[in-house]
Amino acid sequence: MLLNQKKNQRRWSILLACAAVLFSQKLLAAQPMMITVTKGFGLTLYASELGDAKQMALGDKGTLFVGSHKKGTIVALVDSNADGRVDKRYIVAKGLENPEAIAFHDGDLYVAVDEKIVRFVDIENRLRRPGRGKEVYDRLPGKTNKSRRAMHFGPDGRLYVAIGAPCNVCEAVAPFGSIIAIDIETGSSEQVATGIRSVTGFDWSPMDDALWFADQGRDWMGDRLPPDEINRLEKTGEHFGFPYIHAASVIEPAYDRPKNLKISLPNFELPAHVAPMGLHFYRGQAFPAKYHNQIFVAENGSWNRSSKIGYQVVMLEVVQQKVVKRSTVVSFLDGGFPVARPYALLTAPDGAMYISDDLKGNIYRLYYKDIVKKETEQTAQAEETEK
Predict the structure, then answer these.
(1) 145 CB contacts (<8 Å, ≥6 apart)?
(2) What is the pTM of this model?
(3) Separation CA 47–CA 67 (nearest Å)
(4) Given strand 74-78, what is the order of strands in its sheet?
(5) Backbone torsions φ then ψ of 84, nearest 5 degrees
(6) pLDDT digit string (tens) for 94-128?
(7) In this structure, is the dihedral angle defined by the CA atoms of residues 289, 295, 299 and 300, taken in order, positive or negative?
């Protein structure tokens, strides 16, 4: 009898403990998650339900194209009434294999799929019936799960493609671990940077057309090693150290550096494991002057660190071709809980900034509130003068 009573007590204890956990989870779910934005800025939801929204491309007419990695779609987003929120969306392509690397140029959308690059011609006038993409290049290396890719058209008109290493750390066979530049008309290509690990964010400075890119450091060297990197390409063909050296001074124990290999060191080191997925120079005028032509980085956030780091958008201040300061603009980390994982960044036509989120499939719109307030006051003053 006593034994049965003790068993019943234990069962009740377990049930009560489970009930308490469920109750606390419901309370947690009911509490709004906090996003921290630097004073003067505002953040709104531009679009949602996009799967793992990753890289973006902006059309000449303001159409925002979003590529996914897992969902296998390319989506076109249109804000037809210019109210800061998408009201029309179109599926450009679906059923693709990891089509996250996209670029827009001269009216056409380019998408990297497996070893090919395909082009959707005059896409903004064909959103309802885009048709099938036409192959324009077929010499990319076979896609692997660990090799991430990104692409943008450069100031010289060539299509630049970053091709990550297919591993955590290894001596990758070219063109893995490099950035190549492709002449779409002739099909010729050139390796412009080597010794990179995983680059999904790169852009050219509006000041001097220099190529900058963010590179993610290797895993499993601890919480603080190695730093992630911000690099600046000084001349074609530079080697940036992977896998022999990480950041400026972390020597890789598994591979010996070739004796005659000249390595270019990072322009700036980020904390380890912040995962800088997106890098973009702000080209608008709606933000204060100190943000003009400066680098914004989307830190996607750590995945195997003992405490979370990253999950934010930062600005890197560049002075005389050197990063001198890093400051947070938007933080998506609420205590230990990520609200979003920013992936890519783009300047919007109105001077705001688009931020893709591959955690919940959102696109956020970052804007400067004081500009909106000032414009409203000026409009009111103009109307009063007319009276």
Answers:
(1) none
(2) 0.87
(3) 14
(4) 53-58, 64-68, 74-78, 88-93
(5) 85, 15
(6) 999 888 899 999 999 999 998 999 999 999 999 99
(7) positive
